[in-house]
């Protein structure tokens, strides 16, 4: 049983970036995982931002070199969200949601795994 309350990520402000502001506004500024006193933040890599007609996506990484990463995908047509946590090239966790809040809650409530912290 987890002894913490998951902290929902906060989206970027529309004026945060001079070129990508409105496009980044649908993405979290960071994704924080906690298990008790342990915490690991994943930060966006703006160079990985891509979009096409159907989706926008961006990768998130811990600040230090690590085998874990997270891909956040916004499905423009349906307005749904998807996050995929990888350990190297293996899918470790997959979460979806009809809203930003639902998808992010499902993502962070899993907490940290033993090899992640």
List key phrases describing it.
117 residues, six-stranded antiparallel sheet
Can you put this structure into words, describing what you see?
By secondary structure, the protein is mainly β. The protein has one domain. It is 11% helix and 43% strand. The protein has helices spanning 21-24, 100-108, and strands at 31-35, 38-51, 55-61, 68-75, 80-87, 90-97. It is globular and about 35 Å long. The chain has a 6-stranded antiparallel β-sheet with strand order 1-2-3-4-5-6, with helices on one face.
Brief digest:
The chain has 117 residues and is mainly beta.
Rg from C-alpha positions?
14 Å
| Low-confidence runs of at least 5 consecutive residues | none
Derived from helix and strand composition plus strand pairing, the structural class reads: mainly beta
Strand order of the largest sheet: 1-2-3-4-5-6
The ordered string of helix (H) and strand (E) elements is HEEEEEEH
Please tally the β strands and state the result: 6
Number of domains: 1
The pLDDT mean sits at 86
Helical residue percent? 10-25%
Question: Which sheet architecture does the biggest sheet show?
Answer: 6 strands, antiparallel
| Percent in strands | 35-45%
Q: What's the helix count?
A: 2
* Oligomerization category of the chains in this entry: single chain
Shape: globular
Distance between the terminal alpha carbons, to the nearest Å? Answer: 17 Å
């Amino acid at each position: 049983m987890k002894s913490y309350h998951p902290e929902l990520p906060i989206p970027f402000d529309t004026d945060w970036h001079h070129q990508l502001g409105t496009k980044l506004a649908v993405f979290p500024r960071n994704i924080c995982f906690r298990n008790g006193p342990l915490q690991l933040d994943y930060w966006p890599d703006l160079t990985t931002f891509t979009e096409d007609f159907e989706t926008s996506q961006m990768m998130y990484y811990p600040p230090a070199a690590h085998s874990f990463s997270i891909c956040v995908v916004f499905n423009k047509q349906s307005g749904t969200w998807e996050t995929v946590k990888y350990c190297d090239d293996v899918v470790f966790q997959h979460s979806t949601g009809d809203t930003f809040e639902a998808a992010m809650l499902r993502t962070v409530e899993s907490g940290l795994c033993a090899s992640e912290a």
